[in-house]
Amino acid sequence: MQYLTVTLLSLLAALTTAAPTKRDTYYGVGLELHLQENGKTIAEPAPVQLNTLTALGDAQYPATAYEIVFDGSASNIDVNSVECRAYKDAAGVVPGSAPFTKANPAELATPNNPVEVGSVLCYVVETE
């Protein structure tokens, strides 16, 4: 019986050390939603975690923009290797833009006619 207990404890210790560790590193980029108010462009910040659909605004105050651009900030990633896509809904079902990058912002509408942006998904792409 004692042998069985020691064997089980040894096995448990081995499995515990072999288990994958949780990653605590945040990977993300900063985006700006551009609006126009009284002839001036207003930039609303939108931090986005990579590989995570990020909802923008809410039902009462939906996010609107005529353009989405990268603000140049990035955490633990080269911002030039990131591509994003905007969606009209928070669930990420209805596309709201073509894929966009730092070099090619998302042109969603004209400055006088912004559209609702429900969510954004950003991910890493291969760079040349």
Describe this structure in words.
- This protein is mainly beta and 128 residues long.
- It has one helix and nine strands.
- The chain has one helix at 2-18, and strands at 28-37, 40-49, 54-55, 63-65, 67-75, 82-87, 106-107, 115-117, 119-124.
- The model is unreliable at 4-9 (pLDDT under 50).
Count every beta strand, where a strand is a DSSP E run of 2 or more residues: 9
Largest sheet: 4 strands, antiparallel
Q: What is the radius of gyration computed over CA atoms, rounded to a whole number of angstroms?
A: 22 Å
Order of helices and strands: HEEEEEEEEE
Can you give the helix content as a percent range?
A: 10-25%
Helix-strand category: mainly beta
Based on Cα principal axes, name the global outline.
globular
Distance between the termini: 62 Å
User: Order of strands across the widest beta sheet?
Assistant: 2-1-5-7
Q: Beta fraction of the residues?
A: 35-45%
Number of helices: 1
Mean pLDDT: 87
Low-confidence stretches: 4-9
Q: What keyword list fits this structure?
A:
single chain; 128 residues; mainly beta; four-stranded antiparallel β-sheet; 1 helix
Write the layout of secondary structure elements.
Elements (H helix, E strand, L loop, with lengths): L1 H17 L9 E10 L2 E10 L4 E2 L7 E3 L1 E9 L6 E6 L18 E2 L7 E3 L1 E6 L4
What would a concise description of this structure say?
With 128 residues, the chain is mainly beta.
